[in-house]
Amino acid sequence: MAPKRLVCFLAVAAALATTCHGWGAGAGDVVSSSAAALSFVDRLRQMMIPAAVGDGDYCDSWRVGVEANNVRGWTAAPRKCDNYVENYMRGHHYRRDSKVVVDEAAAYAEAAVLSGDPAADANATWVFDVDETALSHVKFYKKHGFGYHRTDEPAFMEWLIAGRASALPNTVTLYKKLLLLGVKIVFLSDRPDTPELRNATATNLIKEGFDCWDELILRSESSTATGSVVEYKSGERKKLEEEKGMVIIGNIGDQWSDLLGSPEGRRTFKLPNPAYYIDNYKRAGTAVRAAVAITASSSSSSS
Amino acid sequence: MAPKRLVCFLAVAAALATTCHGWGAGAGDVVSSSAAALSFVDRLRQMMIPAAVGDGDYCDSWRVGVEANNVRGWTAAPRKCDNYVENYMRGHHYRRDSKVVVDEAAAYAEAAVLSGDPAADANATWVFDVDETALSHVKFYKKHGFGYHRTDEPAFMEWLIAGRASALPNTVTLYKKLLLLGVKIVFLSDRPDTPELRNATATNLIKEGFDCWDELILRSESSTATGSVVEYKSGERKKLEEEKGMVIIGNIGDQWSDLLGSPEGRRTFKLPNPAYYIDNYKRAGTAVRAAVAITASSSSSSS
Question: What is the DSSP code (8-state) at residue A253?
Fold first, then answer.
């Protein structure tokens, strides 16, 4: 019998010819990608700058408020927390918070798949958000500041199209575990579905170890025209279940808007993100789409 | 025109003759109850024991995982986190995390009430959970240990019936603010609705500054017999909206099972609680009810 991940391979091959790339050291290995290790500068920061300085105590509580979906609708972290957010995201704190989430998700997935529930076997599917879930923007923030409002300017879109984001700490580990368990993988992102960005996203994912998937869903023009992020994402999940027969056993994202709205998935996992907030109920994507247009226009005029 | 809180007073007076007690220093004052100040021993602990020692880093991330509803279904905090949980709950950390939640809730309530939405005016209602939301169990844990599994033994029920719980830090502030805004107050608890426990709960709430409410809902025998905590609580919220015309603008609790299940309330707020977890989807109350029976039986046999 063909191994389950071959099913995945074939499905992906049909959808995107270049998707499945070398299994490298083996899907089951705990990934120790370059992203998993702190840079020398970040290690130095950890030694020099304590996690909580000045307003750190307040910022620590503010961050927990964000994670528990108490603090909503903010456009940027409080100004006094800029340094806190930078220290948090560049250092061990972010990584260990993420690790707890991912460990919990992996344990749950294993139990779900081994439970003997047929629905959780052949059609078991896991939905991953892309930005700050599979791929990290920390490199971008290092250049542009951790208080940068990501949808404000074309710089962010240029960076996405450059495809140089690193894998998010720990997420590759969960991804590899799920592949080994035979779980189908769907990436569901609010990134606009332009040929340029689809290619950049796929290439970046593959380069960072997410080298196989069943679906890579980006937001098409028509779906951008209607509804909030919650409506868009829950609508796509509904299609996966109703039209493709998938059973979404897990759903992981860094925003509550990734996780709310029926069908949420049998269980949801919230990765930390104190850098930006996407409103659960407002329509998003407009600024990003405008940025794509600007970027595309400037690329073509300069070519 | 009578002030709005008089409406509340009259409704409560009809429901429970002893409910509305002295407005004290005035409903609008920021409450500085005895519970808001740390005891001498707790202050000393704060100075002597850093927030994170030994496994503190892991426990800190574990706690954030709990708050964001990633870590579920646990019966007690990991053994190695016992000290962490005690330090967290006895000290400033718990209080400042709660304060961020309550500040956010108060700002939201003010904006909602002042928005001009008629539904959010005359019928605006706020649902409070009781245990670890209005009233704290920290005093109990000081005596029985912070790893105590609260539904295991009659000791917990005896303690509830003694009615010596303190107000939870910050929650009284939110409560008083809501009264000033003319918002109706509902306490919705999973405590069993026995005459003894109803009386103890009401008396304890009043003593701690929660001296007026529109509804105090405890779990009746019939509702205990069916469904999970989520079913019970969402069912009661539905009745409040459909039968009493209330508009639940806010809902605050320390458990995700307080906050999930339609109608959740227009906005929900999760207070921290790393001491125990109530499963969202399992039926609860059985152990507590058994404890009530044992307690009642031993009280009557000793009298």
Answer: E
| Tally of structural domains, chain B | 1
For A119, list phi and psi in degrees, rounded to 5. -65, -30
Task: Tell me how far the alpha carbon of residue B204 is from its chain's centroid.
Answer: 12
Q: Which of B30, B130, B29, B49 is nearest to B89 (CA)?
A: B49
Give residue-wise pLDDT tens across range A72-114.
999 889 989 989 999 999 989 999 999 999 999 999 999 988 8
Contacts of A53 (CB under 8 A, 6+ apart): A83, A84
Residue B25 has pLDDT above 80, yes or no: no
Amino acid type, B217: I
> Where does residue B222 rank: exposed (0-12), middle (13-18), buried (19+ CB within 10 A)?
exposed
Q: Can you give the pLDDT at residue B8?
A: 47
A301 touches chain B (CB under 8 A): no
Task: List the CATH number of the domain containing A219.
Answer: 3.40.50.1000
Q: What is the 8-class DSSP label of residue B131? A: B
Phi-psi group of A170: left, alpha or beta (phi > 0 → left; psi -120 to 50 → alpha; rest → beta): left
Torsion, Cα of B204, B210, B214, B217 (10° steps): -40
> Which domain covers residue A224, as residue numbers?
4-302
How large is the ipTM?
0.83
pLDDT in tens, A263-286: 999 999 999 999 999 886 555 555
Out of B62, B67, B269, the one facing A67 most closely (by C-beta) is: B67
- The closest of B135, B247, B267, B143 to B191, measured between CA atoms, is B135
| Interface with chain B: mutation pick from A55, A70, A92, highest number of B CBs within 10 Å | A70
What would you report as the CA-atom Rg of chain A, rounded to the nearest whole angstrom? 19
